[in-house]
Protein backbone atom coordinates (compact mmCIF):
# COMPACT_ATOMS: atom_id res chain seq x y z
CA UNK A 1 0.00 0.00 0.00
CA UNK A 2 2.74 2.39 1.06
CA UNK A 3 4.64 1.65 -2.14
CA UNK A 4 1.53 2.33 -4.18
CA UNK A 5 1.01 5.69 -2.53
CA UNK A 6 4.65 6.61 -3.04
CA UNK A 7 4.35 5.50 -6.65
CA UNK A 8 1.31 7.73 -7.14
CA UNK A 9 3.09 10.69 -5.55
CA UNK A 10 6.13 10.14 -7.76
CA UNK A 11 3.89 10.02 -10.83
CA UNK A 12 2.18 13.28 -9.86
CA UNK A 13 5.55 14.95 -9.36
CA UNK A 14 6.76 13.65 -12.69
CA UNK A 15 3.78 15.08 -14.53
CA UNK A 16 3.51 18.39 -12.69
CA UNK A 17 7.16 19.42 -12.71
CA UNK A 18 10.06 18.65 -14.94
CA UNK A 19 12.06 15.52 -14.08
CA UNK A 20 15.21 17.59 -13.92
CA UNK A 21 14.28 21.26 -13.82
CA UNK A 22 17.86 22.48 -13.44
CA UNK A 23 19.13 20.84 -16.62
CA UNK A 24 15.94 21.75 -18.47
CA UNK A 25 16.31 25.41 -17.60
CA UNK A 26 20.01 25.56 -18.42
CA UNK A 27 19.18 23.85 -21.75
CA UNK A 28 16.57 26.56 -22.40
CA UNK A 29 19.13 29.27 -21.58
CA UNK A 30 21.64 27.55 -23.86
CA UNK A 31 19.18 27.91 -26.75
CA UNK A 32 18.93 31.58 -25.88
CA UNK A 33 22.73 31.76 -25.75
CA UNK A 34 23.02 30.35 -29.29
CA UNK A 35 20.60 33.06 -30.39
CA UNK A 36 22.75 35.75 -28.81
CA UNK A 37 26.00 34.28 -30.17
CA UNK A 38 24.50 34.56 -33.66
CA UNK A 39 22.74 37.90 -33.37
CA UNK A 40 25.13 40.04 -31.32
CA UNK A 41 27.98 39.85 -33.91
CA UNK A 42 25.43 40.75 -36.62
CA UNK A 43 24.27 43.75 -34.64
CA UNK A 44 27.85 44.89 -34.09
CA UNK A 45 28.67 44.52 -37.77
CA UNK A 46 31.18 41.73 -37.09
CA UNK A 47 29.00 39.32 -39.06
CA UNK A 48 26.99 40.15 -42.16
CA UNK A 49 23.25 40.56 -41.70
CA UNK A 50 21.47 37.49 -43.04
CA UNK A 51 17.68 37.55 -42.75
CA UNK A 52 17.28 33.76 -42.73
CA UNK A 53 19.94 33.18 -40.06
CA UNK A 54 18.52 36.04 -38.01
CA UNK A 55 15.08 34.46 -38.27
CA UNK A 56 16.34 31.07 -37.10
CA UNK A 57 18.23 32.63 -34.20
CA UNK A 58 15.15 34.62 -33.15
CA UNK A 59 12.95 31.53 -33.36
CA UNK A 60 15.41 29.63 -31.22
CA UNK A 61 15.38 32.48 -28.71
CA UNK A 62 11.59 32.37 -28.60
CA UNK A 63 11.56 28.58 -28.11
CA UNK A 64 14.09 28.94 -25.29
CA UNK A 65 12.06 31.74 -23.70
CA UNK A 66 8.88 29.65 -23.71
CA UNK A 67 10.69 26.67 -22.24
CA UNK A 68 12.32 28.85 -19.58
CA UNK A 69 8.93 30.18 -18.55
CA UNK A 70 7.78 26.64 -17.82
CA UNK A 71 7.61 25.10 -14.37
CA UNK A 72 11.37 24.94 -14.01
CA UNK A 73 11.84 26.64 -10.66
CA UNK A 74 9.96 24.50 -8.13
CA UNK A 75 10.74 25.36 -4.50
CA UNK A 76 14.10 23.86 -3.55
CA UNK A 77 15.39 23.31 -7.11
CA UNK A 78 18.47 25.39 -6.40
CA UNK A 79 21.59 25.40 -8.53
CA UNK A 80 24.95 27.10 -8.72
CA UNK A 81 23.60 29.55 -11.28
CA UNK A 82 20.25 30.44 -9.73
CA UNK A 83 20.16 33.17 -7.11
CA UNK A 84 17.96 32.09 -4.16
CA UNK A 85 16.22 35.49 -4.43
CA UNK A 86 14.25 33.88 -7.28
CA UNK A 87 12.15 32.05 -4.69
CA UNK A 88 11.70 35.02 -2.36
CA UNK A 89 10.72 37.34 -5.27
CA UNK A 90 8.95 34.73 -7.34
CA UNK A 91 6.25 37.07 -8.69
CA UNK A 92 8.86 39.54 -9.93
CA UNK A 93 10.97 36.77 -11.43
CA UNK A 94 7.90 35.38 -13.21
CA UNK A 95 7.01 38.85 -14.52
CA UNK A 96 10.51 39.15 -15.97
CA UNK A 97 10.16 35.76 -17.64
CA UNK A 98 6.82 36.87 -19.10
CA UNK A 99 8.31 40.13 -20.42
CA UNK A 100 11.03 38.14 -22.12
CA UNK A 101 8.52 35.79 -23.79
CA UNK A 102 6.45 38.78 -24.91
CA UNK A 103 9.52 40.45 -26.44
CA UNK A 104 10.63 37.23 -28.13
CA UNK A 105 7.11 36.69 -29.50
CA UNK A 106 7.14 40.23 -30.90
CA UNK A 107 10.48 39.50 -32.56
CA UNK A 108 9.22 36.41 -34.38
CA UNK A 109 6.06 38.15 -35.55
CA UNK A 110 8.13 41.11 -36.77
CA UNK A 111 10.98 39.27 -38.44
CA UNK A 112 13.70 41.71 -39.49
CA UNK A 113 14.55 42.22 -43.14
CA UNK A 114 17.54 44.44 -42.41
CA UNK A 115 19.99 45.36 -39.67
CA UNK A 116 17.87 48.20 -38.35
CA UNK A 117 14.91 45.84 -38.01
CA UNK A 118 17.08 43.35 -36.15
CA UNK A 119 18.28 45.99 -33.72
CA UNK A 120 14.70 47.12 -33.12
CA UNK A 121 13.50 43.65 -32.11
CA UNK A 122 16.62 42.23 -30.46
CA UNK A 123 18.05 45.15 -28.47
CA UNK A 124 15.11 45.06 -26.01
CA UNK A 125 15.66 41.33 -25.53
CA UNK A 126 19.32 41.92 -24.67
CA UNK A 127 18.19 44.43 -22.06
CA UNK A 128 15.92 41.72 -20.62
CA UNK A 129 18.90 39.36 -20.17
CA UNK A 130 20.67 41.92 -18.00
CA UNK A 131 17.50 42.95 -16.13
CA UNK A 132 16.95 39.36 -15.05
CA UNK A 133 20.53 38.14 -14.66
CA UNK A 134 21.52 40.98 -12.37
CA UNK A 135 19.10 40.05 -9.59
CA UNK A 136 18.56 36.36 -10.34
CA UNK A 137 21.60 34.73 -11.90
CA UNK A 138 24.88 33.90 -10.20
CA UNK A 139 27.49 33.96 -12.90
CA UNK A 140 30.37 31.62 -12.20
CA UNK A 141 32.12 31.68 -15.56
C1 LIG B 1 13.70 36.09 -16.61
C2 LIG B 1 15.09 35.83 -16.30
C3 LIG B 1 16.11 35.63 -17.36
C4 LIG B 1 16.19 36.19 -18.62
C5 LIG B 1 15.23 37.18 -19.28
C6 LIG B 1 17.39 35.68 -19.22
N1 LIG B 1 18.03 34.82 -18.36
FE1 LIG B 1 19.70 33.75 -18.76
N2 LIG B 1 19.58 32.85 -16.92
C7 LIG B 1 18.64 33.15 -15.95
C8 LIG B 1 18.87 32.32 -14.78
C9 LIG B 1 18.05 32.32 -13.50
C10 LIG B 1 19.99 31.52 -15.07
C11 LIG B 1 20.63 30.46 -14.15
C12 LIG B 1 19.89 29.13 -14.26
C13 LIG B 1 20.52 28.05 -13.43
O1 LIG B 1 21.77 27.89 -13.52
O2 LIG B 1 19.82 27.32 -12.73
C14 LIG B 1 20.41 31.88 -16.43
C15 LIG B 1 21.49 31.31 -17.10
C16 LIG B 1 21.95 31.68 -18.35
C17 LIG B 1 23.08 31.09 -19.03
C18 LIG B 1 23.94 29.94 -18.51
C19 LIG B 1 23.30 28.62 -18.95
C20 LIG B 1 24.08 27.39 -18.49
O3 LIG B 1 24.36 26.53 -19.34
O4 LIG B 1 24.41 27.30 -17.28
C21 LIG B 1 23.22 31.77 -20.23
C22 LIG B 1 24.26 31.52 -21.30
C23 LIG B 1 22.16 32.76 -20.29
N3 LIG B 1 21.41 32.69 -19.13
C24 LIG B 1 21.99 33.64 -21.35
C25 LIG B 1 20.93 34.53 -21.46
C26 LIG B 1 20.77 35.48 -22.55
C27 LIG B 1 21.75 35.65 -23.70
C28 LIG B 1 19.59 36.14 -22.31
C29 LIG B 1 18.94 37.22 -23.13
C30 LIG B 1 18.89 37.11 -24.58
C31 LIG B 1 19.03 35.62 -21.05
N4 LIG B 1 19.88 34.66 -20.57
C32 LIG B 1 17.84 36.03 -20.50
C33 LIG B 1 17.60 34.04 -16.07
C34 LIG B 1 17.28 34.76 -17.21
Features:
0% strand; Four Helix Bundle (Hemerythrin (Met), subunit A); mainly alpha; elongated; 73% helix; 141 residues; binds heme C; single chain
Describe this structure in words.
The protein is mainly alpha-helical. The chain has a single domain, classed as Four Helix Bundle (Hemerythrin (Met), subunit A). 73% of the residues lie in helices and 0% in strands. Helix 3 packs antiparallel against helix 5. It starts with a helix and ends in a 5-residue tail after the last helix. The model has no long low-confidence stretch (mean pLDDT 91). Heme C binds next to helix 2, helix 5 and helix 6.
Question: Quick gist of this model?
Answer:
Helix 2 (21-44) packs across helix 6 and helix 3 (51-68) runs antiparallel to helix 5. Helices cover 73% and strands 0% of the residues. By secondary structure, it is mainly alpha-helical.
Proportion in β-strands: under 5%
Order of helices and strands: HHHHHH
Average of the residue pLDDT scores:
91
What is the CATH architecture assignment? Answer: Up-down Bundle
Largest sheet: none
Task: Report helical residue fraction.
Answer: over 70%
CATH topology: Four Helix Bundle (Hemerythrin (Met), subunit A)
Main structural class: mainly alpha
CATH superfamily: Cytochrome c/b562
How would you summarize the topology of this molecule?
Blueprint (H helix, E strand, L loop, with lengths): L1 H15 L4 H24 L6 H18 L16 H4 L1 H20 L5 H22 L5
Helix pairs in contact: 2-3, 2-6, 3-5, 5-6
The chain binds heme C.
